[in-house]
Amino acid sequence: MVMGDMVMTVDVVVIGGGPAGCAAAFRAAELGLDVALIDAGKHPGGNYLHKTCIPAEIYLEIARNIQSLSTMHEQGVLSQIAEINFEKLSYLKEQTITEKQNSLINRCKDLGILLIKGIAFFENSTSLRLKDSEFSRIKFNHAVIATGASETPSPHTGEDNEHPNILNATDALQIEKEPGKVLIVASGPTGLELGCIYAYLGGSVDIATTDEHLLHDVDDDLLALLADKLPKLFNNVLVNTEISEIFEDEHEVQVTMTSSQEEITERYD
User: Fold this and answer.
1) Which residue(s) pair with 116 in the sheet?
2) CA–CA separation, 216 vs 28, rounded Å?
3) Exposure check for the chain: N or C terminus, fewer CB within 10 A?
4) Is the pTM of this model over 0.85?
């Protein structure tokens, strides 16, 4: 790597430090190439590690164990229901994320990959500029773009949602207390995963989707595996249902939903 006036030259620059970006950077370095890995976050791992998939997996695993204990209590095997310490739960999640994050940092060091915090802007096919970074410019032979996806804002709140009780999927994984009564809007893998986490952690969960059934793009034989379990886990499963209005007061969210049969208004935490 050649550095001068904070300009760098590398064989490969990888933009995005999530699982795809890290995998690309690791493999390129293993093949003997000079690699720079750029991410807007302070540490590698991307939203996958710090905000979405890994936090969800941690919560799911803990929630399943809690549910097993509750079942044993119902069967008379345990004399007491386990109480959830949400502060400790959050600490365990952050501790696990930090361990995985440090593992990625050490892997980059071992392979000689330069980690750069910043936002990249292409100048042309062989150079880019950086914002909010210690480096101003990078020249490269090859570039890998692995910047992931972005969330779709709610049409009822817009991108600048300032309602503390109306959450996107990322915010929903910052669980600091018992969930209470919760509405999950949409029934894809993310929605059902969040619904399961909230239900296992003591919440009363409703699912609302505009589709005819849950997981609308999944094969029927796979859906059959969920047919018995989900109605027992969730309070209500509302299909062919649209959200027509959301109103939030100081403590609750009032939601009006419409289907072909009726209009429903419910209040949620």
Assistant:
1) 38
2) 38
3) N
4) no
Closest listed residue to residue 144, CA positions, set 238, 29, 43, 62: 29
Q: Which residues contact 111 (CB under 8 A, 6 or more apart)?
A: 25, 26, 29, 30, 35
Closest CA to 109 of 41, 50, 25: 25
pLDDT greater than 60 at residue 1: no
Query: Encoding tokens for residue 4?
Result: 């001068």
Task: Provide the token pair at 46.
Answer: 């991307």
Distance of CA 74 to the CA centre of its chain: 32
Q: Which two tokens stand for residue 163?
A: 């309602």
CA geometry: angle at 247 spanning 242 and 249, to 5°? 150
Distance, first Cα to last Cα, the chain: 53
Backbone angles phi, psi at 225, to 5 degrees: -65, -25
- 125-159 per-position pLDDT tens digit: 999 999 998 889 999 999 999 998 877 777 666 66
